Amino acid sequence: MSDRCKQHASALLDNHFGDSGADSERPFDADLSALLDDQHAQAAWQRYALVGHIMRGDAQANQQIDISAQVAAQIAQEQNVVVQPSLSGGGAMSRAASRWLKPAGSIAIAASVALVAVVSVQQPVVVDEQQTTQSVTSPALITNPFGGRNPVSYNTVIEQQQAPSEAEVAQQRQLLYSYMLDHQRQLQLSLQEDKEEQQQIESSTVEKLPEQND
Amino acid sequence: MTKYVVAIALWFVAIAPLGAVAQSDERAESVERAANAGQVWFDRMAKALRSLNFEATLVQSQGQRIQPLVWLHGSYDHNTDIELLIYLNGADTRALRIGDQTYYYSQAGGSYTLQSDVTFGLIPPAFYKPFTQINAQYQVIASGGMRVTGRNAQYLRLISRDDNRYHYDLWVDRESGMLLKLQMMTPQGEILEQLQVTSIAFSEVLPEQLTEVSDIQRPPKLYDLQQLTELQFALRPQWLPAGFELRRAHHRKLHDTPLPTDYFLYSDGLTEVSIYVTDQRTQALPNLALQGPESIVNAHVNGFAVTVVGKMPADTLRRIGESMTVTATQGNPQ
């Protein structure tokens, strides 16, 4: 759904539909019926309405986002493609399966952290370029490359003989990203390992006391 | 709850004989009292995160990035709690945890199962356990109250006993013990990560949405993709902040790269740090240090590139990296 369409949904909810100057040239009716026919717009409407309810403090249990339905739909959608590595060869289905399974090799973790990693690895590049034109000795103060103030400042010190080429910078960024992802992945595997060890100990205590080997 | 009352009562009994003491002792006493109350509140929070039935919305911010989430949690039976997290911005990402099985679904990066009784990526796993687990390296101090998410909240400062780690500020609902707000910051007080519950509704029973998730499809389990072998290089860390213990150590290729790497994972119970060692000739990074919610430092030591990653000040990571020395014996560290 386009942003404009979302704006319409939002405007409609606030009874401002047709207010905005940019839309005034188009007939109100056509937009409205298009909006009402659009499933995405309807979903957006629901969400906006919920946000409104929550903001007014009158959200009730039965007005909450219907997550179960969403999960069910999502699962139904994924069902055929997520966990069936042994599908009979060929066919769109198994291609889809392998597409879904492959990322398990390049697991993107908790989107949150992964994306932050991207943000942070973008920093040295900017600094690096500034540094070569300014002073090499003083640690560079990081400013937001996109303007505005960066709430997190990255204290960056980079020692480099000469400015790296664009390809080298891209390679370095990719490498930093790999370290960040690898770290996230290991943290999760370690979490899993702890749990498995804990269970092993629990099951072995039934027969004998666990050995203390610290 | 009665346990805490008893704990407090015992504490008073213990401290009462020292009643008439000098003023400096009184000050020490009040600090101790705050620390004790802090632990009681922390443990209450840990219990609440496991046992409460709630439907919440929250916002997580890291650096320039802000992510709204829906967070549902409920206690299914005495042993099993169910949790559902939905990230509302960007690629549709959800985490569903049923007891000690966590299922991650993402349109962006694939889906997988992790055997873990904590949903990764939101709250440090240590916050689900009693404070005594991290008591040696951290202290938690109750200091006053504040209104958070429209509720009466207790303010807790969780600080490391040295300045080598990040600190946390926590706001805990006085009525339920629920965590309402969290800040992670540098020892200097610069905020790196925030979590703020924006609305929350408690209920007596499991939220209805969570009653219908038991028979959903489960993605494949996360596992080590590569053959892990013995450490190949002779470089070992000689310094880490107090309390860090080795959790993993092996040799393999760095994720998604052909780089042969020695890997070490250390944890102090709350904070984890990864150390990577590769041949300097094969790794193209300059010496660098980035500080953020996850810091990363790359240093050249004895012909090796040492890369250290973790939720810690870049200075600490640099010290860890630079402490790496060649040891005579190869094999397991420490």
What this model shows, in words?
- Chain B: Belongs to the RseB family.
- Chain B: InterPro entries: MucB/RseB_C (IPR033436), MucB/RseB_C_sf (IPR038484), MucB/RseB_N (IPR033434), MucB_RseB (IPR005588).
- Chain B: This is Negative regulator of sigma E activity.
- Chain B: It comes from Pseudidiomarina gelatinasegens.
- The complex is a heterodimer of chains A (about 210) and B (about 325).
- By secondary structure, chain A is an all-alpha fold.
- Helices cover about 60% and strands about 0% of the residues of chain A.
- Chain A has helices at about 5-15, 30-35, 40-55, 65-80, 90-100, 110-135, 165-205; one strand spanning about 155-160.
- The longest helix of chain A is centred in the last third of the chain and has 39 residues, at about 165-205.
- Chain B is an alpha+beta fold and about 325 residues long.
- Chain B has two domains: about 20-210, Lipoprotein localisation LolA/LolB/LppX (outer membrane lipoprotein receptor (LolB), chain A, Clam), CATH 2.50.20; about 235-325, MucB/RseB, C-terminal domain (Phosphorylase Kinase, domain 1).
- In chain B, about 15% of the residues lie in helices and about 40% in strands.
- Chain B has three helices and 19 strands.
- An eleven-stranded antiparallel sheet of chain B has the order 6-5-4-3-2-1-11-10-9-8-7, with helices on one face.
- Chains A and B meet through helix 4, helix 6, strand 1 and helix 7 of A and strand 1, strand 2, strand 3, strand 4 and strand 5 of B.
